[in-house]
Amino acid sequence: MKIRFLLPVLAVVYLAIPYLWGGNNYVMSLLVAAFIIAGVALAWALLANLGGMVSFGHSAFFGVGAYLSALLCINYRLPVLAGILMGGIGAAVASIAMLPALRLRGPYFALAVLAYANIFKILAMEFKGITEGAAGVTNIPALPTVMGFDFSSKLGTYLVIVTIVLLFTGSYHLIRVSHYGAALKAMHDSEDATRVVGVNSTLLKAMMLFVSAFMTGVVGAVNAHYINFIDPDYAFDLGWTLLPMVAVVFGGYRTLMGPLVGAVGIFMLDQLVFKALIGTGHQIMLGAVLAVMVLFSPDGLVPLIGDKWKRIRRAQA
Amino acid sequence: MFDLILQATYSGLLSGGSYALIALGLALVFGTMRVINLAHGEFVLLAAYIAYTVESQMGWNPLLALPISVVVVCITAAIVYLLVTRLDKNREMNSLILTFGLGVILTNLVLFIWKADIHSTSVGWFQEAVVLGPLYSMRSELLFFITSVVMVAILWVWLDKSWYGRAVRAVSSNRDAAKLMGINPHVTELISFLIAGILASFSGVALYCASVIQPALGNALTIKAFIITILAGIGSIPGVLIGAVLLGVSEALTITLLSSALQELTGMLLLLFVLLALPNGLFGRAGRRG
Amino acid sequence: MLKLESINVQFGGLAALQDVSMEIDSEDVVGLVGPNGAGKTTLFNVISGLVRPSGGRVLFNGIDVLRKPLYARARMGIGRTFQIPQPMHELTVRENLLVAQRFGTGSVNQSKIDEILDFVRLSDKSDRDAATELALTELKALEVAKALAIQPKLLLLDEVLAGLETGGKRQFIQMLSDLHRQFGIGILIIEHDIETISSLCKRVCVLNFGELIADGAAEAVFNNPEVIKSYTGESGA
Fold first, then answer.
1. Is the pLDDT of residue B233 over 70?
2. B254/B267 Cα distance (integer angstroms)
3. Which chains touch B (3 or more CB pairs under 8 A)?
4. With a CB-CB cutoff of 8 Å, which residues 151-170 of chain B face chain C?
5. Which chain B residues contact residue A312 at CB under 8 A?
6. Residues of A with CB below 8 A from B261's CB?
7. Which residues of B touch C80 (CB under 8 A)?
8. Which among A187, B185, B280, C93 counts the fewest CB atoms within 10 Å?
9. C103–B163: do the CB atoms touch at under 8 Å?
């Protein structure tokens, strides 16, 4: 991201929005929820764009992050911020279980990961001794008050999640322009060719999976401390995969800003328009957006691992 | 204990038979188009809700809903097919996202029309017990199983003997070669989608008679069908039958021996085991999954 | 019968075929030779419909077939084989031919199938599973038989002899030389072995780097210095 883009973005996010709506809890709660989706969307897009993998199982990372952070903070009195970090690390560790799926091709990977997500949900449901089972975890500690500023307020949480999402965006950017990013790009063109020149493609993919899982886990943890209550159905809800996926397909997954803009846009549309117009079953519009984008948007998900993209890239090279 | 296991195996066999009917549609489309139709469970759901409507609104026996659901579901299937064919780039991956989105649309359409309440048939006849020696089942379960067996047999004969059945097999085994033999793949693909719709209609109506239905069920059914398709391996009908029974029996044994909450876990673990350990499924030809 | 008019095919920035024109008559048995990567199989793909050229026309009996899909071209009478046999798995040998005949010609004629099976010497293997129970020679024979079952007017044979051991090869060459006589169809053969080509074809076309560098009587073509150069320079075959 260029500096001349960065400064206005920072100004809007840290100054204009808090100044305009900082006192309006409704707007702030919408923005917090939107940026939580944006965080997961970014992680999802990173895996899709750099790793070339479409995941139907990001709810697993989201739930693991939420549960781990909540339980560590309740049972071991860990500070909330340390808990959130552990949530991310825990999600990355959980993704180790998915490593065998990396050798599967696209759709099989996507659905194997869906199976993993379901398994995690069932485990959270069944290990009642640790997770309280279906009853869920209550009284999760809120974000702390630092130097007199209450981060558990709507505005405080907004600043936390926005900062995290921006940090993730920066990391994503750095990975993309690093030699890892270059190797991953080359990998899309020809996995065999990169293997020949000594790029370990499975290791690279695994690293992207770890990073993506970590990011999703952190966001899940923040969300848990924000709403103070989780149960398996909520924390591992397929919606944590669906909404970010729609956001990414909507915003375009190949740019840094696509997932963020897509997430905020689609979330606001869903909450303010679809929900108001349709009520029960408003998710129908999310399905419709997904279908329409895949069908008609040439620059949404279409070029993913696609032949056409390869051809264009070769033509440009 | 032995009685329990025997009963569980029997129940598992019956539910496995009904899974087979659901899974065959998915497997057939997967075979001809290499597309995993993630909206397939919603086809079944749609038929089940039509059966519910016929019973609750018209007071008819839900079995009479079959012709209507065949028509409605087949039209839906044809629409899904037409949309999928519009994807020309990276169809394997994008069709997954597209049909996932279409599944969300259908689920919410059901939610929108019929609300989130749980429904089951009030026709008492279906719930009556059938006792075979030491084994017990409901009439509806047995009916579902028998319907499955009959439909599978018909499908088998059709695939084996009819020209379009052979064309479906030819396209799923070698698409380019089939085209060079003068087979129009679009026709066979549409046919496989329509057959999937017919099978889903029978499954849906039977499901309503034998069990409880709710909008969230579609997704779970798709996942079960997908697990069975992967268990079976590409293009193996006997594989689908055995995979379905395997899933049904393992689930039933899990419920009996461990806990009903772990039922879903069984299927997931089976799926992962086959995906990771058996590259071609239990019975499939050399696939191209890795 | 088949007329190619300045066919161009690009793969990325690479020209796979450049301005290739040729005509094949229903009486012709033509050999298509050239070093590896010269574009021979690409030309087959253009004619049968697997590759759409960036320029040029393909006329079959006067009809431009470029916009027609594979299966329509097959029904018009363009049959082809693949270098790596592409049987339809799960179908028996006979079923492979029946399906080809039914969908390629629109009708079924069992005695014609028997004739083809007999011709490619697969009569006793007709109930075998095409995917799992055939040896390579038999798979190659099935490949030819499938193409014959659609009753082609033009048959494109892509290295049907490659990979066969000497005995099977001799048998196959005999079969190929009977092919034209028995079925009366135009044939275009890709083959590396010049001796085989000389024995089967009166006319030979040579592709080099996507360009048609020679087209004429076999003897004249093989004595053409440019052709010799392309061969010795590229593969030494």
1. yes
2. 10
3. A, C
4. 163, 166-167, 169-170
5. none
6. 122, 125-126
7. 180
8. B280
9. yes
Which residues contact residue C62 at a Cβ distance below 8 angstroms, ignoring those fewer than 6 apart? Answer: none
* Chain C residue numbers touching B167 (CB-CB < 8 A): 99, 103
Across B277-289, average pLDDT: 62
Q: How far is CA B86 from CA A296, B90, C86, in A?
A: 9, 11, 27
What pairs with residue C187 in β-bridges? C29, C155
Does any CB of chain A come closer than 8 Å to the CB of residue C16? no
Can you tell me the distance from the alpha carbon of A102 to that of A49, in angstroms, rounded to the nearest whole number? 15
Q: Read off the pLDDT of residues A227-239 as tens digits, 9 standing for 90 and up.
A: 888 988 888 888 8
The residue with greater pLDDT, C55 or A147, is: C55
State ipTM: 0.84
Least confident interval from B245-254, C101-110, C125-134? C125-134
What structural domains and CATH numbers belong to chain B? 2-277 (1.10.3470)
A281 pLDDT band (50/70/90 cuts)?
confident
Q: The domain A30-316: what is its CATH number?
A: 1.10.3470
User: Are residues B229 and B24 in contact, defined by beta-carbon separation less than 8 angstroms?
Assistant: no
Option in C80, C90, C103 nearest B183 (CB): C103
Domain ranges of chain C: 85-151
CB contact under 8 A, B180 and C88: no
pLDDT at position A305 over 60:
no
Separation in Å, CA of B101 to nearest CA in chain A: 4
Mean pLDDT score of chain B: 87
Residues of chain B neighbouring C146 (CB-CB closer than 8 A): 177, 180-181
Nearest to B89 among A246, A281, A307 (CB): A307
| HSE-CB for C210 with a 13 A CA cutoff | 15
pLDDT per position as a tens digit, A193-212: 555 555 677 788 899 999 99
pLDDT value at residue B278: 77
pLDDT in tens, B86-109: 887 777 778 888 999 999 999 999
